[in-house]
Amino acid sequence: MSANIHTELYGQAPGGSVHLRHPRWADYEDWVTLRRESRDFLSPWEPSWDENHLTRPSYRARLSRFKKMVASGEGYPFHIFRASDNRLIGACNIMQLRRTVAQSAQLGYWVGERYARQGFARAAVRASVQFCFDELGLHRIEAAVRPENVPSISLLEAVGFSYEGVAREYLKIDGAWRDHAIYARLVSDPFA
User: What pLDDT sits at residue 153?
Assistant: First the structure.
């Protein structure tokens, strides 16, 4: 990872201000609590969780993978913290960086149920987009969303992502292969 890449991000959107930073071991208890209490809320949009998803060894392994990703510049996982009290409220991940002719990455995000629709996810996505373009020098950011996930589609459109089409059976979500709408934002697009 380049020494000049800042990996602590701040974002604001109507209704919410956030601080993003890489996950740490000290975040485990707050993370597992948030994931447990939001399981039903998140399960329609995420891959199924195996029985070990919330265990300490699984989290430790996740941190190890994340550290390697950041060190190699292949991905930048962030936890989202509410700025007002530094409470962990979700995650925003920049993954599958392609540094060849594509110069692109994929963006994924989630917030816990009690923090949804308050501007926090929008603030985190805006901060991540700026990081991708300003710090990483990427040309394109993609996000995949289930077509029935209207709140997520509205969020992406509000921060300048454009609809590009449907990828059939793109990801296995909640135990089944699901179609996803593909949204993208280019560095040349005006910032919403």
Answer: 95
